[in-house]
Amino acid sequence: MSIVRVALDVPLSTLFDYTVDEAVVVGRRVIVPFRRRQMVGVVMECVANSEVAVERIKPVLQALHDSAPISANLLQLLQFCSDYYHYPIGQTVLSALPARLRSDKPITIKPVLHYRLTGAAPHIDFLPKRKAVARCIVETLSVQSCSLVQLKVISTTAGAQLKWLEQEGWVEQFEALAMPQRLSVASHTFANAHQLTDEQQLVVDAVTQSAGFGCFLLHGITGSGKTEVYVHLMDYVLQRGGQVLLLVPEINLTPQLEAYFLSRFPDASLVSLHSGLSENERLKNWQQAQTGTAQIVLGTRLSVFAELPKLALIIVDEEHDSSFKQQDGLRYSARDVAIFRASQSSVPIVLGSATPSLESYHNARTGRYRLLKLTGRAQADARLPTVNCININQTVMTEGISEKLLREVGQRIERGEQSLLFINRRGYAPVLMCTECGWLSDCKNCAGKMVLHLKDQRLRCHHCGYQLRVPTACPGCGHAELLPIGSGTQRVESVLQVRFPDARILRVDRDSTKNKRAWQTMREQIHANEVDILVGTQMLAKGHDFPALTLVGVLNPDSALYSSDFRAAEKLFAQLMQVAGRAGRADKPGEVMIQTAFPDHPLFRCLQSHDFEGWAASQLAERQMAGFPPFVFQVMLRAEGMIEAEVYAYLNQARKTAIELKYPVEILGVVPASLARRANHVRAQLLIQADTRRELQQFLRAWRPVLDSLPTQKLRCSLDVDPLEF
Ligand SMILES: [Zn+2]
Ligand SMILES: [Zn+2]
Asked: From the CA of 678, how far away is ligand 2's center (Å)?
């Protein structure tokens, strides 16, 4: 009989001891009794003795042999995360696993239905030209069998076309238990490999020639061909039988990217990992990564915890994107964890961006990372868009849109080109006001305002989801006239409808893309040039290529200039660079017009000259003066609860204990969160910062046990290391 120490999904910073009869290895999942329940845990250690009296140790109920044990490498990575983010080890380990591996039900994966060509299938040239989707399906299936999900990437109508092909007897279904057998790794196909530009080649050489761990910041302007660099790096790794992990910020982008990388490596095995997959799909893909079958793993932040026995390269695309940071539970930064992982595995990591985060850029400038640059557009004739500001104080405005911009939009419609109006607010107007008594549409549960959604006549709180019918008279004084203040996407859409009654206008925001396939359909419409004007939020800014788009109008960026969040300007610059990059990518030059009251602000000046370096240098100088990251390292203790006094009493007590520890850290005051009340919970926070990461971690190791011993009553508390939200 021996003793194993098991990680369990409970909020306690400890492992739990159990006895086992059989030999159980580290990383094995086991079912154990815990309090009055059964739980799945992961064996972290096998030990000879326990601090608990032997008669009190319960036995493991069952060791699960339905999946390979978690590797020592991954467990070490998770231990690092638990230590660094000061989050309980059991919750860290279990939250990294696919849901199916966390449940005590045995794993039986239903086979996935795949499609393949039958012997009777005609050559693609014999299919009617008008059957474009069917032709595309046949072409894809002639390379390898595919599931319906994979084929739907081709088009939303793939299902119907498949039915037709089946009826004709050209395509058949079969149960695919595993991914089809691959050709030998060395002979994979690298399709459409362009000749790299000299700059691109230098980048590829720098990464492939580095031995062991190295962190590279790839700063490449929009259109400079970062993706081409990625595929050449992937090709290098695949040739040598290694695995590539590619992290991307946006779940919406993964199907497109999956299709793209498969088109470049048609016989490579690629799996995706993100929260949009079904539990079975996620487990299957995870296991393919674990066995080394998957050569390319493409995923959002959670995929940084995939098992990758042959890991040879990590790429983090759009490394500056804040969605790499998890905002609840284990509050990790997938980018930062990926860097640790690369160093743990002694492999290179490439952080790619057109607007690197100031943290990464600072690290590159000070020599911790190696800076690689792509300064030219990959297509020599492609030009960067021109950027101009429209001073909103010196022009005629129609409900938030300047006359000048409207005229430009009109010209684009005449020329058959697309325009995009970018506004980072959905709904009709952010607040409704009474002109008589000053009543505002406050949310009864939050410190925020209810947003007017005119389409369905609702006031809706975007923080807690509370909604009301739009009142016909002022709830304060009964006055009949209520005025929408400010603009959201719906209002912009309706202004445009009045001005351009014949134009085809498409609104893209979280409301209009609620249905699963809506966004996909919209993208197809945009590509087919069936849209004249796009109105949208940041959803439109990210990584989409719209060939007919030549004008981008930015409607209301100014609030970020006086935000209390010191990162707001950095985020705005990145967002505007990204959205500007949508304009004029093909043969037509693009134009960006920014409506602002501060046309001389350095942010817009740098944007006009496409000067990231200048912008970053000025921001870093400001941050250094003000003592903000990356020149200090921060931890945020947050608390929220129904009773204000309890929230503040807890945080003040925590602050007192932090001061008493007498570590070289700066302890700020307890302050309300930027949204001081949400869903009837009072929210407040305490920020602590240190000059070095080490000092901060030393302090946290001492403070954490003290915090754990403070009574928290009914409060929700969390510790956020390297916080991004304030
Ligand atoms: Zn009123
Ligand atoms: Zn609310």
From this structure: 6
Total domain count for the chain? 5
Give the ligand at the shortest distance from the Cα of 479: 1
Ligand closest to 464 (CA) is 2
556 CA distance to ligand 1 centroid (A)? 27
Ligand number, closest to the Cα atom of 468 = 2
Q: Taking the model in full, what pTM does it have?
A: 0.87
Q: What is the pLDDT of residues 160-201, one digit of tens each?
A: 889 999 998 899 887 765 544 443 444 678 887 778 999 999
What integer pLDDT is reported at residue 180 of this predicted model?
A: 45
C-alpha to C-alpha distances, 21 to 235, 258, 376, 561, nearest whole angstrom: 47, 45, 64, 64
Residues 223 and 296 in one domain: yes
Nearest ligand, CA of residue 444?
2
Ligand lying nearest the CA atom of residue 474: 1
Residue 585: per-residue pLDDT? 61
Task: Kindly give the distance from the C-alpha atom of residue 472 to the centroid of ligand 1, in angstroms, as a whole number.
Answer: 11
* Max Cα-Cα span within the chain: 84
Q: In this structure, is residue 450 part of a structural domain? A: no
- Report the CATH number that the domain containing residue 589 is assigned in CATH: 3.40.50.300
CA of 424 to the centre of ligand 1 (A): 28
Assess contact for 188 and 265: CB atoms under 8 A. Answer: yes
Shared domain for 496 and 600, answered yes or no, is: yes
Angular region, 445: left φ>0, alpha ψ -120 to 50, beta rest? alpha
Which pLDDT band holds residue 508 (cuts at 50, 70, 90)? very high
- Alpha-carbon distance of 619 to 632, in angstroms, equals 15
Q: 675 CA distance to ligand 1 centroid (A)? A: 25
Q: What pLDDT does 185 receive?
A: 46
**How far, in Å, from the CA of 258 to the mean position of ligand 2?**
37
Which domain does 44 fall in, by range?
Answer: 2-102
546 plus 659 within the same structural domain = no
What is the per-residue pLDDT for 118? 86
- Domain ends where: 335, 351, 374? 374
